[in-house]
Amino acid sequence: MISDDTLLEVSLRVDYPNRPHALTDVSFSIQRGEVLGLVGESGSGKSTIALALLNLLGWKGGVATGRILFCGRDLLSASEQEMRSIRGRQIGLVLQSPLASLNPALRIGTQLGEAWRAHAKGSRCERSAAVAGSLTRVGLPNEEEFQRRYPSQISVGQAQRVLIAIAVMHSPPLLIADEPTSALDAMTQVEVLTMLASLNRDMGTALLYISHDLQSVASICHRIAILHEGEIVECGSTESILATPRHPYTQQLLACAPWLQLLPRHRRPSQPPLPDNASQPNAVFPWGSTPVPRRRSQVSIPTGR
Known about the structure:
Layout: E1 6-16, E2 19-31, E3 35-39, H1 46-53, E4 63-70, E5 73-74, H2 80-86, E6 91-94, H3 98-101, H4 108-117, H5 124-137, H6 144-147, H7 156-167, E7 174-178, H8 186-203, E8 206-211, H9 214-220, E9 223-228, E10 231-237, H10 238-243, H11 248-255, H12 258-261
Parallel strand pairs: 3-8, 3-9, 6-7, 7-8
Antiparallel strand pairs: 1-2, 1-4, 4-5, 9-10
């Protein structure tokens, strides 16, 4: 039975015609107002999960089985008409390529206005107020001069903020952010992560943050789920995943995290020694099912939801 605080519960398997068993055992849940990080290497199926949650796998020939319970409703059995009322209004999506995701032929204000009209009715003044408010919410100018620009006339960082403004236009209870910082420089990455954390704190929006970057995940997520070869192999609080990872794959990810090595040695989670053949393709790592004792990590972790 699902708790009243559970916003999303997933038990999923996905097959493609040319890639059966793309996802074989993906199970996780998200509570209301929670930030869950989904971590995995390229090709592990992270974006497939995002598409499945929005019931869009059919566009790529994928077939999903299992269940995706969102607010108690199974999205896998929902009709396309039902999903159109959910996408954008109840579940927002932010993609990793902002300039490619925006329509290059439409002005910024027009695209925001269309996003508002997709799920709301009202006067031109109400639409303008909603657009201006959404831009302000993500730290962008709401003046007409900015709204009249085309995507090619703004920076990549501004374009990503526009995508987020569109995604949170209707204050959805769930936001999916699929590699939202991968195309950004380091300073802009920090700004976007700070903004996502603020949206979670101020609006109570739950966030599924999808990334291969453990450092960014650790900075804003309450919990982390590790995806490997089509399965969620480990899921727990950010602190427990960083301090006492149980699965060998998670341990390998942390062993390869350079930012952990920059912490003072007495504050750094202890790492097991690498084998002599670590550089070889078939190297065997000495990590079994017993968790490796680690000290508490000093990475900043959100404490509130």
